[in-house]
Design goal:
Length: 273
């Protein structure tokens, strides 16, 4: 693993520089030299999470899980009605979804962006190891599809929808939001969906603890998004996004070596992300 990760780290120069740039914002005062080695730790965790995910999908070993914030997790699992899980590109979310879907007593729908490579995306769609079941499904946010309407219907049926709120690829609607001292473009979709359906947003993150060990960080739900009379919709959504940005900042500052973001996020267009 050390050899493969180090080779990938050196060859993927664009991704390495992006991680270094992001770390410079997450860790104020950090040096470029220090962030070079910190970036390697990000690649190291990424290599292990991808390996663990591949082994589990192939029917290999089970992973050990620990939950921080068990009371929040139970609140989510036991509540009536739909709920939104908001997470980031961290840890083994591809494995955690199928593993914990049964805990919610209702269907968990994980939303993913299509793979950039068309052949790879078609492979994942046809792959027999997608681990979908009666209680778990993957929904791809493909261009031109009205996924938002489908997600609103799922929430209306009392299901859980899991979304990633740390990246706004392509033409996804975004809004400049304070994260780690800078304003970056985060996706508006999860918050618009929460406002439209009245569903609560539960921040949840996954981090790697060590050899085949992972931890779920289940945090308290964000304040409910309620449309106030005379208050613009953009302001209501903006407050929710700022609350999410504060949560995301705290997690990134503590677990910077677990954020698998290989494109520059901070300082890009100064607010456009």
């Amino acid at each position: 693993m050390f050899g493969y990760v180090s080779l990938f780290f050196l060859v993927f120069a664009r991704g390495r520089r992006a991680v270094q740039q992001n770390l410079g914002a997450i860790i104020p005062g950090s040096s470029p030299a220090g962030n070079f080695f910190r970036a390697w730790r990000v690649f190291w965790n990424f290599g292990w999470t991808m390996t663990d995910a591949g082994r589990v999908r192939a029917g290999g070993h089970e992973l050990a899980w620990k939950i921080d914030g068990l009371e929040n997790f139970r609140q989510l699992a036991e509540m009536d009605g739909g709920a939104i899980l908001l997470t980031a590109h961290m840890g083994n979310y591809d494995v955690a979804g199928p593993a914990f879907a049964g805990r919610f007593n209702r269907k968990l729908n994980a939303v993913r962006a299509p793979e950039r490579d068309g052949n790879l995306h078609r492979y994942y769609e046809r792959s027999p190891d997608r681990q979908e079941s009666e209680g778990f499904a993957v929904r791809y946010n493909s261009p031109g599809e009205m996924l938002g309407i489908d997600l609103a219907k799922m929430l209306g049926r009392g299901e859980v929808v899991a979304l990633q709120g740390d990246r706004a690829p392509g033409d996804v609607a975004r809004s400049p939001t304070p994260v780690c001292g800078e304003r970056i473009g985060l996706p508006q979709g999860p918050h618009v969906l929460a406002l439209a359906t009245g569903s609560p947003i539960f921040p949840l993150f996954i981090v790697r603890d060590g050899w085949r060990r992972y931890r779920i960080l289940s945090l308290a739900p964000l304040p409910r998004i309620v449309r106030e009379r005379g208050v613009p919709k953009s302001e209501v959504i903006g407050r929710s996004m700022e609350a999410w940005g504060a949560v995301l900042s705290g997690v990134l500052e503590q677990h910077w070596d677990q954020w698998f973001e290989f494109e520059p996020v901070f300082g890009v267009g100064r607010g456009e992300g």
